Amino acid sequence: MTIRALAPLFVGDFEHYRDVLVLQDDSRPSFPARELVTAEGLAWLLDHYRLFQPGDDRRALLSQWSRYYFVKLSVPTVAANLVLGHELPVGLDTLEIILGEDGLPEAFKLPHEGGPFASTPQGPFERFQELLDGNFETLIEGWNQQVKLSRKVLWNNAANYVEWLVNAMAGLGLPARLLADGKQLIESERRPDGRKNPMFSPVRYVERSSGPSPLRQRRQCCIRYRLPDLALCENCPHIDRPPKGARLPESLIEQA
């Protein structure tokens, strides 16, 4: 079943996230998220996804799959954290994944519904520790080691959606104090211990002489264009100088 405490979040534009986070009594088949970083589990996933998304470039396949993973998990988790002060058990070792009929993540099965923070988190890296350190970092390191997909690409795949979400919630009129840690997460170049923050500045807004301007552009290309039936993303950094063989998205062709 869905998590009742999160119901106030899933209205309007966010309604389709209502059934993304579920509990153990959900009857849909699932598998442990930890399997995504095992050689056997990742090979099975990519072979399965290839049935729905043609292409032999394993890095592009994984990058494209990861984009759906990151957006589906990030949006409800970060929103619940910022707006409701509700921490969710989304660590890689406790999470299970439900795949849809298209081979992409449809939902995530949690061990329990989580709850309010025991004490107010001291900044974004404490607030989002479960998501960043307990899930993203382990996953991204595992994928980088096995498929040699750039860490920068994978972190940008994740951070892109967090930046979009924080700005979307600000546009809905949510108080700045609620979104402060979300904004700091993507505006801090370094973590408190001095390490680089891989979530830092995931996009830029570029003034252009033609087409939409300013254009929201990712810092890193997700390389999905290496798959035979996919064009560049609308916010690809290569929009104005496409790689050889890459197609522009239909929306930008129409506006050119």
From TrEMBL:
InterPro entries the UniProt entry points to: Fe_iron_reduct, FhuF_C, IucA/IucC-like_C
Domain Aerobactin siderophore biosynthesis IucA/IucC-like C-terminal, chain residue ranges per copy: 63-210
Region named Disordered: 189-212
Residue stretches making up the Ferric siderophore reductase C-terminal domain: 218-238
Superkingdom, natural source: Bacteria
Pfam families the UniProt entry points to: FhuF, FhuF_C
Protein name as it appears in the record: Siderophore-iron reductase FhuF
Gene name of the record: fhuF
